[in-house]
Amino acid sequence: MQVLNNFDLTDYNAYQLKAQCTVAYFPDTENDLIKIFSENTQAKKILLGGGNNIILSKAYYDEQFIIFNNCFNKVEINNTEIIAQAGATTLQINNVALENELTGFEIFYDIPSSIGGAVVMNAGTKVKEIKDILEKVRYIDLQDMQIKELLNKDIGFEYRNSFFQKHRDKVVLKAWFKLKQGNYNTIKKIMENEKNTRWDKQPRNFPNCGSVFKRPKGHYVGQMIEELGLKGFSIGGAKISEKHAGFIINYNNATGKDILDLIGFIQKKVKNVYNVDLEIEQRVI
Ligand SMILES: Cc1cc2nc3c(=O)[nH]c(=O)nc-3n(C[C@H](O)[C@H](O)[C@H](O)COP(=O)(O)OP(=O)(O)OC[C@H]3O[C@@H](n4cnc5c(N)ncnc54)[C@H](O)[C@@H]3O)c2cc1C
User: Fold this and answer.
1) Judgement on whether residues 20 and 103 belong to the same structural domain of the protein
2) Are residues 194 and 176 in the same domain?
3) Angle (deg, nearest 10), helices 184-201 and 90-99
4) Looking at the domain assignment, is residue 207 inside a domain?
5) Which of 113, 160, 162, 241 is catalytic?
6) Structure pTM?
7) Residue 211 annotated in active site
8) 241 given a catalytic annotation
9) pLDDT by residue (tens digit) across 36-67?
């Protein structure tokens, strides 16, 4: 396991906000994780997957970070089932699924994520969410340091929400996905279409963390913000994307505060005009 002191988190959060933490652990095994959580129990610990849905609100963290990025990422295959450790990426699963002509995971091709993060967030699109292909999850319960498993039906999946998001003392270790036999060319085509359609609409030339807000019932976030004339509006280095108003981009050395101030500003405007309370999808750390 790698343990790095005074670690620079800039490349570990998709907004590319500049921040540092006292210690960063990159675990390789379940035993590493048990060790991290059993030792030095007074130190506060923060989990990161790919950092694609987080806002680092501080420039320096006294907390220790446990980062599932480029580690703890083994992927196994058992007939039409793919079993992945929490640090594996959606892209890794897509590649394994494609090589083995398994279908069902294509829509996650362009959602940057670790498997742990995808389960916690119930990542997905209007068409499909992680809950639709997940069988079960293995996790450490930090309450009693026991390793446990939960079946899909017991994970309380909701739109961008799950049991694991409500219980921060559970660490996702592994997930089992049930796919179906498919055809190489068809799978590849769906993946590429998915990517092209999304890149046409989303601001991929600046650091961002995807949609900032959850979709409120009966409204489209991007549409409301656009109607308010806020496309391109900025606070500090954070800007509402000109390409898609539901995205905030780091266009000029933004800080976490810039992003949070811009979010607060949007929430206020939308509440005043539409009487809608926008809920942040991204996790503020
Ligand atoms: C360009 C872009 C497009 C996006 N499009 C979409 C989209 O279409 N749909 C969508 O749903 N999301 C989208 N997102 C958001 C993001 O991709 C997802 O939320 C993703 O699942 C986050 O995974 P992550 O590994 O990066 O998690 P992180 O951002 O690292 O963490 C998210 C939360 O999960 C917790 N966590 C991470 N790993 C674990 C673990 N092993 N155990 C317990 N808790 C853990 C963290 O503490 C944090 O609270 C997009 C992001 C970007 C940058």
Assistant:
1) no
2) yes
3) 150
4) no
5) 160
6) 0.96
7) yes
8) no
9) 999 888 899 999 999 999 999 999 999 999 99
